[in-house]
Amino acid sequence: MKKNTQPEIYYSEYGVSLASPRAFFCDNSSFGSFVYDFEEEKKYLLSKDPKASETVSLSADGKWVLTIDTTFDTRKRFIRLVEVETQTEQMATKVAFGYEALFSPVEDWIVIRGDVKKREKVFIYNWKTEEMVHTFPGAHPLSYGHLNEELQAFVLPNPRKKAEVFHFDFQTGEGQVVALPSRRLIHRVSLVGKEAYFYIDGDYIATLHKAGEVIWQVKLDFDSSLYYAPDYFIWEGKVYFSYVYDIVVEGKEERQPCFYAIDLEKGSLDTIVISNEKIFGAFLPFLGNQVINKFGECIDLQTLESSRLSAAIF
């Protein structure tokens, strides 16, 4: 069971750079939108008004962010490319009423989910030429898919047809439909290797499918409250389900927080106990070995020790 009691919220959205000690934070009520460099201990304020725009993506080198205006005026909800250190706006795309955006391995291309002429779409956009390079047949949230920087590809489930995902290759600029063994719609999918897909379907079955074969399958029965596939992140060869759960012993709930994780190689479902009883909520990858939740609480996945972001950052 998930606990409902929450401490003071520090921020609502966050994300990290893959190649620098930088992270972005975005709070729509108090702190606004900013990037913090943990090596320099320096804050780059992107928006003083927390209700004006929100940061949605940080480039791999930590030098650029993508922001989306928070207005609900369909003519003004632009996606903007902003340089972190100078706060200079490089571009503002008006092609869609933006919901989400991601940097891609191709310098001038970004992945966008938004309404285009009142129709929701997911597409690859060349912001220099102002062209849609590729449009996906379905429009799932980007978080249901996965952008693999190393393999230079993006995968996304088909929201309309069971057992299908869309695969876009940034090196060739081509997309394809991939059929995967399932009786239901694919809820979430990740590209974990060449021709290797980890996915969760509508039966809450986690599957590793590689080179045309099912390597293993695991039934996810640790959360009876699921109405959709649980969020997860992948770290050091394991799939961590991002929410911290309480272990149930002999039918009784105890305040013993844990992560559930699947070993990608073996397909075994493990329970990883966290000693801090005050830890709860959903966690996503942060800097180094750490994961972080929306309240500034951090867990080191190697030592399982917990810490908290300094309030001075905010």
The end-to-end span amounts to 31 Å
Number of helices: 0
Question: In total, how many beta strands?
Answer: 30
Please indicate the percent range of residues in DSSP E strands (runs of 2 or more).
over 45%
Mean pLDDT: 90
The outline comes out as globular
Characterize the structure shown.
The chain has no helices and 30 strands. It has strands at residues 13-16, 22-27, 32-37, 42-47, 53-58, 64-69, 79-83, 89-93, 97-103, 109-116, 119-126, 131-135, 146-148, 153-157, 164-169, 174-179, 186-193, 196-201, 205-210, 213-219, 232-235, 238-241, 243-249, 252-263, 269-273, 281-282, 284-285, 290-292, 297-300, 306-308. A hairpin with a 4-residue loop joins strand 28 (290-292) and strand 29 (297-300). The two termini are 31 Å apart. The relative contact order is 0.10.
Identify the notable features of this structure and list them briefly:
four-stranded antiparallel beta sheet, mainly beta, six-stranded antiparallel beta sheet, globular, 30 strands, disordered N terminus
Short characterization:
The protein is built from no helices and 30 strands. The protein is mainly β.
Q: Any chance you could write out the topology, listing elements then pairs?
A:
Elements: E1 13-16, E2 22-27, E3 32-37, E4 42-47, E5 53-58, E6 64-69, E7 79-83, E8 89-93, E9 97-103, E10 109-116, E11 119-126, E12 131-135, E13 146-148, E14 153-157, E15 164-169, E16 174-179, E17 186-193, E18 196-201, E19 205-210, E20 213-219, E21 232-235, E22 238-241, E23 243-249, E24 252-263, E25 269-273, E26 281-282, E27 284-285, E28 290-292, E29 297-300, E30 306-308
Antiparallel strand pairs: 1-2, 2-3, 3-4, 5-6, 6-7, 7-8, 9-10, 10-11, 11-12, 13-14, 14-15, 15-16, 17-18, 18-19, 19-20, 21-22, 22-24, 23-24, 23-26, 24-25, 27-28, 28-29, 29-30
